[in-house]
Amino acid sequence: MELKQLEYFQMTSRLKNITRAAKRLSVSQPNITVAIKKLEAELGIQLFERSQKQLSLTPEGAVFLNRIELALRNIQDAVLEVNDYKQLQKGTIKIGIPSMIGAYLFPKIFSGFQKKFAHLDIYLYEKGSMSIRESLERDELDFGIVIISNASPSLQLLPMSTNQVIACVPEDSPLAQKDSLSWSDVSNIDLIMLKEGSFIRNLIQQKLKE
Questions:
Q1: Mode of pairing for the β-strands spanning 120-126 and 91-97
Q2: How much is the average pLDDT of 176-194?
Q3: Is residue 189 part of a domain?
Q4: Residue partners of 126: CB distance under 8 A and separation at least 6
Q5: Strand runs (DSSP E) across 58-209, as ranges?
Q6: Whether residue 102 sits in one domain with residue 49
Q7: Domain extent at residue 120
Q8: Of the four, 3, 82, 130, 175, which is 20 to 30 A from 65 by CA?
Q9: Is 105 helix (H, G, I), strand (E, B) or coil?
Q10: Are residues 65 and 106 in the same domain?
Q11: Is 30 within a domain?
Q12: 56 and 95: one domain?
């Protein structure tokens, strides 16, 4: 029993027509006819009812199709996984990281990844979250760690954590006595913020503008 025979049988079952199956698989019609006959001979059963213009599965054929579809999916997944692994054996990955995250989170991730995929060249770009998102959308980066509230439809996102915006103030500041701050509390004081292109900076400026 060959993999091609199973693939030909699966496509013919779906389309209920050998001619259309041959066209979809880019092979000749006799190839599919011969493959299915060999498969039936090997199994000792009839897979299709051929008395009608449109092929239909026999009860035995329906059972066989149900079983092999799972097997074929597993084979396809295995091939994809191996190809993905092969692609990670060489090449380059361009990664964008915000400065704050790069300082305390990324070194451990980077070190572990380099040990596992030593043949990859990794280029790091330290930018603000907004700049990283724009670079990802322009396909200038392969991967980015961003602080962002709204998902972009053009990006595939994997949430890592949910965080709060924290204000650091002197111990003798009146604000230090509060459990939480409103935007009006900080609207008239000097703020030290991250550089342009940072999502947090953009968020704070937008809230203060409002």
A1: parallel
A2: 88
A3: no
A4: 96, 97, 98, 99, 102
A5: 91-97, 120-126, 143-144
A6: no
A7: 91-144
A8: 82
A9: coil
A10: no
A11: yes
A12: no
